[in-house]
Amino acid sequence: MPHTPNNSWGFRAALLSGPMTAPYHPPRKYSVRIEGHRTSISLEPVFWDMLIATAQREDVPVNALVARIDAERIRAETPPGLASAIRVWLVTHGT
In this model, does residue 32 exceed pLDDT 70? Predict the structure, then answer.
């Protein structure tokens, strides 16, 4: 097989280590407070970054934004888990 950029290991490694891999990081645990109670949520860093950016843009603390999302989630007919609700909210309302 000829050595070309499309089939060289260097090219593949560059693709795999480039910026496209960042969104595919596994979830991490983050601590938040909802109505004074500490809880942790597991979110992929890309969603955490979106949550922070949305809170900054709306000029509210992250905990306040999470509490708002939590309140909306609880009113749902079949409430999802908090982390799922945050992801869905960010995709539909956020950035």
Answer: yes
